[in-house]
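User: Structure please.
Assistant: Input sequence and predicted structure:
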Amino acid sequence: KMSLDNLITADQLAEKYPHLFTQRQANWMIRNRHKSGLDHCTVRVGRRVLIDTVALEAWIDSRREFRLEAS
């Protein structure tokens, strides 16, 4: 279930995680969300597109190239 506390803008994403995303990268990800698969991590509210940080974390985790097997 989505929480409103987890929704942020691309600007806030870049501010919160500067070691992961620059401002330009965050904006590019949002503009190209349908191509990159991030469309399920976003919510459109009027003209704004917000990012669900929990869904974004799951998306990033799903793109790992190396996974440790659980014991």
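The first strand starts at residue 7 and ends at 8.
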